[in-house]
């Protein structure tokens, strides 16, 4: 191959999230978000929510659990919370962006902390927070790096969670749209690419959407409010700047049938439908028939206001952003499978694949399969906005970090994207590997589970100098970008 198959304007870059990377959790007028009350964890110890009961007692529960009625988030001064400092982009943004520019980034995906712009999530603005992102975007643009902004990434201002029960309350749509209108107008000449909600199919519980109930009715009612909010945001953004590209973002985990037994095939269809449901609504603009039937079986009644269906139909997105880390397997008989680790969920072991140190199946071909399935089904541009390999990195005596395992992972996934473009005709606009610089793991709260091309000196207890250093993969990715994805 003498010429790259990737488009000349392909967006090579990296991805982060405010609550895992930014730090400065109470700096510059920011107030608490739900993720600020989530502790760290590891392989055996889950991340916990610390909260205060309505009687004033301090309690904890796992981050996916329902909080008791009347409970509010609480930051215990005796606990360590990884989001509070994370890896401190808030104070290191110039240094970090210079390193991204050295790698040759064409874009950088980050999220805006809602509680930094609107401290309580309401219609009260914090100018110091707005000014911070002005500085970040200006710094990126000075190097020719396109900002890719996720408007809301896995958290909600704690006030909205505690006082309004988060996204179960329709009033939150209006507060979110005020936030969107503020950032759309403020940054309309600095940001072109937006995504409304990160991994919308994984949004659940108090941790991520501020709801106190975790039953199916509460989950899907909140999801409906998210759909309406996203659709309204898309329409609003296009009115403010018609050149905006506004996408959705889903965690895409293709599931293969365990065998050619038709029952296994049907189980895989059911699994894949659950994530595709969220894409169907935001790309096609309506609830799919199978989901309506499921609601009927489960006695889930979505409360809609007049015009909601029209709003969802009119507010479809411009592109699909998705994360791809792994695949899984579906089987009709659960006694026949073995479970391993996974992205926000346990996954079924595939006997044909190896796993990472955290049990995630490594499946480069699965990325091509995902690109084919999504493009064939939706025929809109695709953007791989997360993909990466969490591993324990070792600093050698000479100070280098020889992460050949990460280079091998990325090389094979880039080859899969290349095949999807050249052989399958997929329209792919960009690639932003997750945690391009080390940050806190969303799933476990660990620092030792590292993804970055750039090492940050910080451990699982919050100790470290925060010094940045280049891993071997840094130089590999720099060369890959310079060659526009061509590999030897």
UniProtKB/TrEMBL annotation:
> Which positions, given as ranges, span the membrane?
none
Alphabetical GO biological process terms? carbohydrate catabolic process
GO molecular function term, any single one: beta-glucosidase activity
Has UniProt tagged this entry with the keyword Acyltransferase?
A: no
Active site per UniProt? 386 (nucleophile)
SUPFAM superfamilies (UniProt xref): (Trans)glycosidases
Sorted alphabetically, the Gene Ontology cellular component annotations on this record are: cytosol
Alphabetized, the UniProt keywords read:
Glycosidase, Hydrolase
Family the UniProt entry places it in? Belongs to the glycosyl hydrolase 1 family.
Recorded protein name is Glycosyl hydrolase
The organism's taxonomic lineage, starting at the top: Bacteria, Bacillati, Bacillota, Bacilli, Lactobacillales
């Amino acid at each position: 191959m003498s010429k790259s198959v990737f488009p000349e304007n392909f967006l090579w870059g990296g991805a982060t999230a405010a609550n895992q990377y930014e730090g400065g959790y109470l700096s510059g007028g920011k107030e608490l978000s739900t993720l600020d009350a989530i502790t760290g964890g590891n392989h055996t110890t889950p991340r916990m929510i610390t909260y205060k009961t309505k009687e004033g007692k301090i309690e904890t529960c796992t981050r996916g659990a329902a909080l008791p009625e009347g409970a509010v988030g609480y930051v215990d001064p005796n606990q360590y919370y990884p989001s509070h400092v994370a890896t401190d982009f808030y104070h290191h943004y110039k240094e970090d962006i210079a390193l991204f520019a050295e790698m040759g980034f064409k874009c950088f995906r980050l999220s805006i902390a809602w509680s930094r712009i609107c401290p309580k999530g309401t219609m009260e603005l914090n100018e110091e927070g707005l000014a911070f992102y002005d500085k970040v975007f200006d710094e990126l643009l000075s190097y020719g790096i396109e900002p890719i902004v996720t408007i809301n990434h896995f958290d909600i201002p704690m006030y909205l969670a505690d006082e309004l029960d988060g996204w179960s309350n329709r009033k939150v749509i209006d507060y979110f749209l005020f936030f969107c209108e503020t950032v759309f107008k403020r940054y309309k000449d600095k940001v072109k690419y937006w995504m409304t909600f990160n991994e919308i199919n994984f949004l659940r519980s108090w941790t991520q959407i501020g709801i106190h109930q975790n039953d199916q009715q509460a989950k899907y009612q909140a999801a409906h409010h998210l759909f309406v909010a996203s659709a309204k945001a898309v329409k609003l953004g296009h009115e403010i700047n018609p050149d905006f590209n506004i996408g959705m973002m889903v965690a895409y985990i293709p599931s293969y049938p365990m065998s050619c037994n038709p029952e296994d095939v049907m189980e895989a269809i059911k699994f894949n439908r659950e994530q595709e449901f969220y894409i169907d609504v935001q790309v096609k603009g309506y609830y799919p028939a199978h989901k309506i039937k499921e609601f009927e079986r489960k006695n889930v009644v979505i409360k809609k206001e007049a015009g909601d269906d029209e709003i969802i139909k009119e507010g479809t997105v411009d592109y699909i952003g998705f994360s791809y880390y792994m695949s899984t397997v579906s089987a009709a008989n659960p006694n026949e499978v073995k479970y391993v680790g996974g992205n926000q969920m346990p996954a079924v072991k595939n006997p044909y694949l190896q796993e990472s140190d955290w049990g995630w199946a490594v499946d480069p071909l699965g990325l091509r399969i995902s690109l084919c399935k999504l493009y064939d089904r939706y025929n809109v541009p695709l953007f791989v906005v997360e993909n990466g390999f969490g591993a324990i990195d070792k600093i050698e005596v000479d100070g280098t970090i020889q992460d050949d395992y990460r280079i091998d992972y990325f090389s094979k996934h880039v080859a899969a994207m290349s095949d999807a473009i050249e052989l399958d005709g997929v329209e792919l606009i960009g690639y932003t590997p997750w945690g391009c610089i080390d940050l806190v793991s969303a799933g476990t709260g660990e620092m030792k589970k590292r993804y970055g091309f750039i090492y940050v000196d910080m451990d699982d207890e919050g100790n470290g100098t925060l010094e940045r250093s280049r891993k071997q993969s840094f130089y590999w990715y720099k060369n890959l970008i310079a060659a526009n994805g061509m590999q030897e």
